[in-house]
Amino acid sequence: MKTFKDLLMVSLTGLFARKVRTLLLLLGPMIGVAAIIAAVGLTDSAKGDLKAKVNKLGTNLIEVSASSAFGGQDPTLPEDVLDRARSVVTVKSVAKVHELANIVVTPYNEARDKYEAVPIPVLASDVLLPSVLEVKLISGRWLNEFDEQATSRSAVIGIGLARQFNYLPGETRTIELGNIRYGVVGVLSEVELEPAFDNAVFITFSAAKADFVDADKILANKIYVRSQVGAEKDTSEALKIAINLGGPDEVATDIKSEALQLAAQSDQQIKLIVVSMGILASIVGGVGIANVMSISVIQRSAEIGIRRALGHTRSIIASQFLLESLFIGLLGGICGVLLGIVSIFLGATIAGWVFVLAPWLPPAGILLAMVISVIAGLYPSVRAAKLEPLETLRLG
Amino acid sequence: MLHEPETDADVSEQQLANEPYVEPLLELKEVSRVYGSGDAKVYALRDVSLRIMPGDFVSIVGPSGSGKSTMLGLLGCLDIPTSGTIIVGGKTVTGLDDADRTEVRGRTIGFVFQQFHLIPHLDATGNVETALLYRGLSKAERRRRAIESLDKVGLGHRHEHRPVQMSGGEQQRVALARALVTEPKILLADEPTGALDSQNAENVMELLTNLQSSERAVVLVTHAAEVADAAFRKVSMRDGRIVSDMTRVR
User: Fold this and answer.
1) Residues from chain A contacting residue B111 (CB–CB below 8 Å)
2) B94 and chain A: CB distance < 8 Å anywhere?
3) Among B107, B114, B140, B110, which residue's Cα sits nearest to residue B125?
4) For residue B51, is it within any domain?
5) Contact pairs from chain A to chain B, CB under 8 Å
6) Using the 8-state DSSP alphabet, how is residue B3 labeled?
7) Model confidence over B105-139: pLDDT tens digits?
8) In this structure, what CATH number is given to the domain that contains residue B71?
9) Domain with B165 in it
10) Is B221's CB within 8 Å of A10's CB?
């Protein structure tokens, strides 16, 4: 331990005694590491706002819809679809909807001519939908159990539709769904993972059946599922089987954030190219270290000779030089990381991006600089250790 | 005063003198050092035997090419002989590996060189401390001993000066302090005054002369007659052999 302490002192003294040389040696690993950190950080930061959005919205929303494999009309999900979905253990919450076809939606009856050509989706929805989508209401309230049981003609509209119909928040208004007047009880906030909902009208299943469906029952043709984070793929596969089992219709699943996640991914090719250049710069820096240290060994041969004469062993001499290069790597790595972070910060600020720095990046950068420096220092260290004191001391 | 009494007569003489046996500090036994091989073979030393006893103050003299530098390298465990045996402090060093030889060197031998060989980026204390590194001593203890050693050679006021800030004589005295700080049994000096003016040379020689004690041996390698004359014992060399080994009558 004391020997190591002595070595540490000797190496640091050697480095600080030749400040300019040490600074020049630092440049190599420093520039290399800074290039890598800046490359990764900037490509990440360029997509930083999208990444933040993915984090906010969550990656675990899955849409399950009935699809007809043989071209049949109006495919539906089984009646007990919610129970089937909940039987998948990774499912956290679930809500069902039924998209109603061909209903003309107008703000008031007289405007029918104007709005007839504009398709506005009308959905029968259960009371849990906003909580599964994790969306709030801008004003009013969502459909509740009372609406469902009383078959009340209550409707919630999307934010886009509210703007289109000049609906003022909190205003008492009605809406015409195929000539049937519904009372607007609330406005749903923006649904980023399902933009179609912004222009949709939501009513209860019971009202939908009473007013728009001739059949005995109204079955869901779509459900929304929140799964455990990280289990989206497995859950989506399990849901297909759990829901489809024994039913006539096909089931399709869609992980809603997948497209967004893809868009938020950094450009891997550019990243790879710039990181390779950074690694190349580090290696060139390493070659520089090997070069300068080899010359330094020759310049310091008298010092090495006298140290050997004073009783320092070959391994001590080798360790001394190896420690010097390790410190160069450590210092160069730290400076490089700092420089890289400053570059990301400046770049992101100028371009208006969100600053993103992966937490593994700084330690990895410093480690890389140290590994390269030590490898570069191996040859000079061995040379230093092999010097014969008799040859370097020039005896009279 | 022989290591192994060879005859009964010798033993009785020793007993009569009532003196303890003394082991040689350093012994060369039929040592040869050959450079090159085949036709290019050069004998730098040929079958040389020499004993350095405690209290010796020896000068090794000879013209250049006589083998005195080779002799110094071997005496200082900096080199290994082609044949023959070297014994330092009762321990045979020929056959030891480099690390063990280095250990023996660091423990028993102090060096002073013509070119001083101080480490330029260290101050006087730092240079002297270098000899005490890797010996399990604390920084404070190293420093205390280094300063003590510098005071002994009369450099009490120069602790924090770097080699470039000192005169040649001062630098050689720092080198001397560095050689002495480990309290070596043998002090090897290679042309210690070769790079100094006469006044400084005189001072250094005076220091060297005072360093000789009953415990320690001082070995000077030089081609300067007046330096050699300061020693009690003079070993003359020529063509790789010892041609004379004379001791002054005290």
Assistant:
1) 306, 309-310
2) no
3) B140
4) no
5) 90
6) S
7) 999 999 999 999 999 999 999 999 999 999 989 99
8) 3.40.50.300
9) 56-79+97-247
10) no
